[in-house]
Amino acid sequence: xxxxxxxxxxxxxxxxxxxxxxxxxxxxxxxxxxxxxxxxxxxxxxxxxxxxxxxxxxxxxxxxxxxxxxxxxxxxxxxxxxxxxxxxxxxxxxxxxxxxxxxxxxxxxxxxxxxxxxxxxxxxxxxxxxxxxxxxxxxxxxxxxxxxxxxxxxxxxxxxxxxxxxxxxxxxxxxxxxxxxxxxxxxxxxxxxxxxxxxxxxxxxxxxxxxxxxxxxxxxxxxxxxxxxxxxxxxxxxxxxxxxxxxxxxxxxxxxxxxxxxxxxxxxxxx
Amino acid sequence: xxxxxxxxxxxxxxxxxxxxxxxxxxxxxxxxxxxxxxxxxxxxxxxxxxxxxxxxxxxxxxxxxxxxxxxxxxxxxxxxxxxxxxxxxxxxxxxxxxxxxxxxxxxxxxxxxxxxxxxxxxxxxxxxxxxxxxxxxxxxxxxxxxxxxxxxxxxxxxxxxxxxxxxxxxxxxxxxxxxxxxxxxxxxxxxxxxxxxxxxxxxxxxxxxxxxxxxxxxxxxxxxxxxxxxxxxxxxxxxxxxxxxxxxxxxxxxxxxxxxxxxxxxxxxxxxxxxxxxxxxxxxxxxxxxxxxxxxxxxxxxxxxxxxxxxxxxxxx
Amino acid sequence: xxxxxxxxxxxxxxxxxxxxxxxxxxxxxxxxxxxxxxxxxxxxxxxxxxxxxxxxxxxxxxxxxxxxxxxxxxxxxxxxxxxxxxxxxxxxxxxxxxxxxxxxxxxxxxxxxxxxxxxxxxxxxxxxxxxxxxxxxxxxxxxxxxxxxxxxxxxxxxxxxxxxxxxxxxxxxxxxxxxxxxxxxxxxxxxxxxxxxxxxxxxxxxxxxxxxxxxxxxxxxxxxxxxxxxxxxxxxxxxxxxxxxxxxxxxxxxxxxxxxxxxxxxxxxxxxxxxxxxxxxxxxxxxxxxxxxxxxxxxxxxxxxxxxxxxxxxxxxxxxxxxxxxxxx
Lengths: 271, 317, 329
Fold this sequence. Notes:
heterotrimer; B: 2 domains; two-stranded antiparallel sheet; 71% helix; C: 5-stranded antiparallel beta sheet; 9 helices; 18 strands; 28% helix
């Protein structure tokens, strides 16, 4: 191993990097503090006092529970759809060379590359043209569309790593296509799919822009929060819900990171 | 392992549907490809691209001023409306904001990316990676909400300035025309800060990836040949990191162009493109104008991506 | 006797590239057969045609008399040792070796017992519980070999099997592969770009160039009677002499090859030469000389006097040692 010259980073660089990272994290930590404030009407800093009572209040709010439950259902179903579609597209693109591979990649990435508002309004006008009533399923149609890309990215990266000669070796040893899929391909891409699924869940659970257009009267948890932000009813409850949302999205992301950290492609770098 | 010659050289096909199918797919890989591609293509092609095209189509219709109903006749009138001063202002404002946000993100992102790519090792590397990933993935609304708390008149920023006896600075800033306002949370400065904050990780990750591909030996070679650290930065590092910065700017630019929630919650009452689209299709009920508005970011991004591609940014994505 | 593998007029085109161009080939049962050639010469494609990873664009392939076209790899009783070994990273060594038996439906106890035996055969007993990542290159290669042989293939294909190993290990593996092949009696076909490996291991060698077989013969024949300039050049150690120089040396005006050990240095001889350099190889010394503007290499066996660099010497050779060749690149 070559050793690098041990000069280290200069102080201004360290400072700039450290301040940058702090800038990214302090606002989120701040939310945690606000969840315990005793102040009800304003965003006063520092909090005049700390209390746990808003957690109890939020716990007893049926509208929060309804929104949470809808978000979990939507995110779960969208994740399953994204897993199926993303894996199929990734397998097709990486296992075979064919005309139009680039077009497929573009098609998968487009829903996340274009501003969410365009995806949202396009779907909304299509629903109204086709007379489709808004429901949980219209939300899922939207979420499924933009969740495909995270599964796809993870799966494509892993397929690229799973060398073609493994599949040939399996066939050479007498395994047909299905046996090769079950014994070789699936075990090799499983963690990538799991990571992709976690990220898709987090993406869907947090989505608000497309959902405002495809949701009708339904409220997912982010929609509930958006309404509170625009027309606040009970600020401390919003603070508590914000903390819950942070926790629910953090865990899958951490899990996805640890599932893929030994590989060269780490999950989530392409939200 | 004794008798190797007793087995046949070619084994007969096994019975069963799976075995037959497997042989079929082996003989006709295109069939398997077709079956694999059909579901994603149906979903993305029909549901998504179909909706997009339907939307674009609507931008070529116009709304009847008297009945308020859409007349289904081809016209460019709606696009002409985009050039009305009120609408054109919206486009300019959004574009200016996108450029400012992109530049600021690049400046803040570079040291973080450079440190993480070049100096962070082992646990610190993971720390930096997660340090960028966590804010990237944590809830968009919560992050905006956090800034509403921070920038509020009674919030932490005002408090910090007061504690440092620097309140006059903040007041002076807010007194500035156009970008100032009653408080940070209802000024363009506030909108700008939140945009930079929320899209920053999208700039860091590709820049870091590009910098990681620069071999350390290049930097050493440059120093060895007599370049000062400053010269090395300008002539070696920056050109090599540029594709990463451009790749990151694709995100910051595109996301700023299309966002309508951040300026709605933190900012003045003047509209951005996203809000205009939202307002036109919702309360105003003018879907053709909303559609025409949403074509604007698509066109700008199209031009932007073409330039970015020339600069090799796609390899850094 | 039925051939183990036979190609008649087999071609494989990739677009406009003729990777394999109307190749005729017969490999006898029990033979240790080498396909030698530079990269891109078509040897690996030929191997893949036998394994079933590629299908011929034209021509006919038989394996032990049975038609092979249209038969997927998993129905051919032919196994491959891959260049990168292609061990399954998620399976233990034992499960890697037992894979072929598992997909054929053999029970766990029996297939693990046979896998242990196969590991013993390649001198890796007790390594079954490890993962491929924990093994060295040489050990991985043995595992790949055991994984292929446990299926009792009629033909074993080896794709540059020793390419990734260091010199000492390579020589050891060459010996082991040869003795394994002799004791098992299976047909071995191996691909290599290393001429010394091909010549030292194989019963017969096919030299490939531009998708065709230039010469297929025993190593001795390839070495002493190369059919074309290309073979002489590629196989390497012979002096290749152009027609004009050959005429000056008093031979026919044709391309010729002359082995270094066939040239003698002494007081008498038909040719004056000047010694430019010499290198000691152990059993002999290789002396480079310049004669009539042509560089020649001469092998002086140990025990005979080696001329000094810069000395003028006489070269001699028996006319029968000059081998004339076709002028084909």
